[in-house]
Amino acid sequence: MRHPQLYALHIAHVDCDAFYASVEKRDRPELAARPVIVGGGVRGVVSAACYIARLSGVRSAMPMFKALAACPDAVVIKPDFAKYVAASRQIRALMNTLTPLVQPLSIDEAVLDLSGTEALHRAPPAVALARFALAVEREAGVTISVGLAPNRLLAKIAAGRDKPRGFCVIGGEARALLAPESVRLLPGIGPAFARKLESLGITKLAHLQALDEREALRRLGEDGPALVRRARGEDSRIVDPGRETKSVSAETTFDTDLSRREDLERHLWRLSEKLARRLREADLAAAGLTLKLKTSRFASRTRAQRLSSPSRLPDTLFETARALLARETDGTAYRLIGIGAQPLAPGSDADLPDLADPLRPKRAAAQAAIDALRAKFGGDAIGKGRGFPGRRDKC
Length: 395
Known about the structure:
The protein contains 15 helices and 13 strands. The chain is an alpha+beta fold and 395 residues long.
C-alpha cells in the first residue's frame, strides 16, 4: 500500500473481524464457507455474524428471529465466552510485544501508540503492524483489521473502512476525506442525534466542518465546537493503558416471558455466578450492583445498590440483586434480566474479613474450592441447589 505519511504515522486501531464467529470457524474448519451466527435462542439477539451471513443482512444485536428469516441456512452457535476471552488474551499478548501503550476498548478491539518503537522493531510502525496482523492469523487463527492514523478518532474510522482483513491509512487528507461522509460516520452519533442534526440541515461532515466555534455553540450547544473538531478529524485523546474498565455485566434473554419471582431468581443466580467468574478473571470486585430488566414490551428497568464492601462472591451478588428484583416482581412479564458490577474495585479489596460478617472468610474459601473443582472437572462438576432446574426454594 502507498501513502505519503505511511512511515510517519504511529496511532493504530486494531479490530478483530467478526471475532466470535471467526473463533468458531477457526475451531470448526468445516464451517469456513458457511454462514455462521453466534447467538442464543429464538428470542435472543445476534452476538456476532460472519461476513457470509452479513451478505444476507444479518447484523450484531439483531433479534435472532429476524436474523434467521434473513439467512435461514445459517449455522447458529451458542456463545462460548471463555473461549473468546482466551483468544483475546492471546492477541493482547501479541499487542504487548509491539508497544507498552496498548489501551483495550473491548474484548476484540484496542488502540495502540507505536511512537518510539522503530528502533525496537527495526521497522516503522506500519511494517510492524503488518507483521503483527500476520502473526495474529498464524497464532490465534483469526483475522484483524488495522487503521493507522495521527490520532485515535481517525485510526478507528480507518480500521472500519476495509474490513475484513483490512489495513487502511488516513493522514493529512483527513478533512477532505471526511467532508462528503454522513454525520453518522462519527463514533458517538447514533440515529437519534443524527436525526436532530439532519433537522438542522446538517447531513454531511462538510456541513459541520464549515461551522466556526461561535456558530457551532449557538446551533449545537456546549458540545458543538468539539463536534466540529471531530468532523475535521481532530482528536487530542492519548492512548492510556491504565484506563479502567467501568463495568462488568452478564445478561440473558428468556425463551418465554417470565413473571414469577422464583423463575426469575433461578436465572439471576446463574448470572450471579457468571458475573463473579468474570470479576475474578479481570481481578476486580463489585462495589455496587445494577439490576437490568426488560419487559415483554421492550421497556427497560434499571435499579442499583451499593455493597457494604467490595465482593465477587456469587452469594453476595445474588442476595443484593434479589432484593432489587423483589421490588420489581409485581406481575410484570419480563423477556430479559441482567446484572452488572458498577462501580468496580480492585480484586485485592474483595471479601476482606469483617467483624460484622465473621463467616465471610469461610464463604470465600468455599467458593475458591468450588472454582478449583470446576477448573479441573468442568463448569458442571459442582453447583448449589438454587442453580438446579425445578428448585423453587431459597436454599
